[in-house]
Amino acid sequence: MLPNPFWATLLVWLSPFLLFAQVNTQEKEKALQNQQNNAIPTVKKKQAPAVEPGVADGAVAGTMSEAGYLAVYQKLRKEALAANRYHIAPAKQAQLNQVVEKLGEMNARSFEYHYASYLNARFDTAAGHHLLEAYRLAPANKELLPELTLFFEAKGEPAQQLRYCKLIQQQNLYDPYLYAYARNLLKSVEPGAFLITRGEWDTQPLWVLQKVQGIRTDVTILQMELLHQERYFNRAMAPFKLKKGAYKRFTTDKGAFFRELAEAGEKKPVYLSVTVEKQLLGKAAEHLYTTGLAMKLTTMPYDNLPVLKVNWSSFDQSALVPATLNPDLNRMAANYLLPMGLLYQHELSEGNRAGAEKLKQQMTTLAQKAGKTEELNRFLKAPPKK
Question: Please, which residues have CB within 8 angstroms of residue 186's CB and are 6 or more apart in sequence?
């Protein structure tokens, strides 16, 4: 069984990089702007007047094109979500609304206006017409494909979702490393599991594997951001038959909600991707047991080390370290350090020095690439005791 003090210590030194499941935003925005410039020749970019005081909180000055305003919107949105990924403060939302209004004044038929309007709705399917129009205006824009799969997941339209999953695979949107990571994530959960994921990189490749390639279709993927949309939440949680008011508890007290889910999930196994923020779970985090790149949520005592060892042995060990020189993939790869740290400590306690040394070498390589060598060294010098 996973000892809680060891689990807590691991989270302390792993927390800076366990949550990396999103695409690097700056690179994504740069790619998006380049694709916009190349993909929408029919949309005339007219210059905007100087930004009025208060718009974008003074983040921009001078005149800008629609693409410039969209970049401003994405920058402000990134800052707002950095404070709280699942809730934008009213003052920040007001700034975002102003930028969208400005785009509407400039050209309410533009790609930039429709895309910003959809993002501003925060997965509200009622705003889906904006996303579909943005895609009609810029069908070559690959960055819209993940948004479209999320949209049709939220709407509960699997046929449409499959269409865009196929395009994601055909257009090589994701590095092969992310598909290897997704396969190992699926190997971390038992048959018939419900797996809650956090962001784009630990969700979209899973859907491609399941819906396009037919891999582990027994696993139900629940996306954490989408769960904040009430209709999706109610549909996703229907199998658990939770008490009335579950959605309100989820949005106001996730600790209480996840404990309730753990209790309700004894007959329906629930797992969380290691990328899900543990601080959201409060005391319910005490009921998480690492089984690989996922953690089982249960209120029952659970001996996870034998399961972890079996799952780890089934992983594609050649795919632990990204083959390409991509710092974002290296940070994603650092998620392997949590199960590796547990196995390392277990091998030491069992007197298996050779096994522990192999894990140490693998952890050292991953930590170096993720820029976390110092944190790893501190852990290795004083591994927690059972």
Answer: 195, 206, 209, 215, 216, 219
